[in-house]
Specification:
Elements lengths: L1 H50 L5 E4 L4 H8 L5 E10 L5 E11 L4 E9 L4 E8 L10 H9 L8 E3 L10 E3 L5 H22 L4
Parallel strand pairs: 6-7
Antiparallel strand pairs: 1-2, 2-3, 3-4, 4-5
């Protein structure tokens, strides 16, 4: 009998602790939800402006699902998160900002790719990355600059010292080939999507 009472008592205590913990977690989520969303929006806005510094505004055009399957078939681990028009002060379309997420060595890497109407990669700006410090974390310093002002093409990652064609080859970060390929694969997916769904102001 005492054992039964003890079990019931312990069960009630555990239930109370679980209930209180759940309520507290719910409160924390409610309190932090808006600030987190605001910070994420700031990071995205900064990334958009980084790849199209001459743009005055960015207009969401959405992702056309009819192209996604064919675009991403060759790029496993990559997803296209959003697409925006980059507009000048007169409302003219300068190009597009394609937000991409690709699987890196440690986690997913999230970044924007700016492509002009003239088929030129205007810039790459990383929003979120959690790769190996000193190696993959150098993606924005090492990989991104190699892609700026290049014709929008399909790029290939090559090892350090093996770069022969700068127009289509990207030199990998030393010791971080997986990260280098992840970012480049995402850029290739963005270029492929641009060609299929956006080129010519479609």
């Amino acid at each position: 009998m005492n054992d039964t009472k003890s079990m019931i008592k312990n069960a009630l205590i555990l239930f109370a602790i679980t209930l209180i913990a759940g309520v507290l977690l719910g409160l924390v989520y409610q309190v932090t939800k808006d600030p987190i969303a605001y910070q994420e929006k700031l990071a995205q806005d900064k990334a958009n402006q980084s790849v199209f510094s001459t743009a005055s505004t960015f207009e969401d055009v959405g992702v056309d699902d009819s192209f996604i399957e064919q675009v991403l078939a060759d790029y496993p681990g990559v997803s296209i998160e959003s697409v925006k028009k980059a507009l000048d002060s007169a409302g003219n379309v300068l190009g597009y900002v394609i937000q991409v997420k690709s699987k890196g060595y440690g986690d997913y890497i999230q970044y924007t790719v700016g492509i002009t109407n003239d088929d030129v990669i205007n810039g790459i700006s990383i929003i979120k990355i959690a790769e190996t410090p000193g190696l993959g974390m150098n993606a924005e310093k090492v990989i991104a600059p190699q892609l700026v002002d290049k014709a929008a093409a399909i790029f290939q990652v090559v090892k350090s010292g093996q770069l022969f064609d700068e127009s289509t080859e990207i030199e990998a970060i030393s010791g971080a080939t997986i990260t280098s390929k992840a970012v480049t694969s995402g850029v290739n997916a963005a270029v492929t999507y641009f060609d299929a769904a956006l080129k010519g102001g479609q």
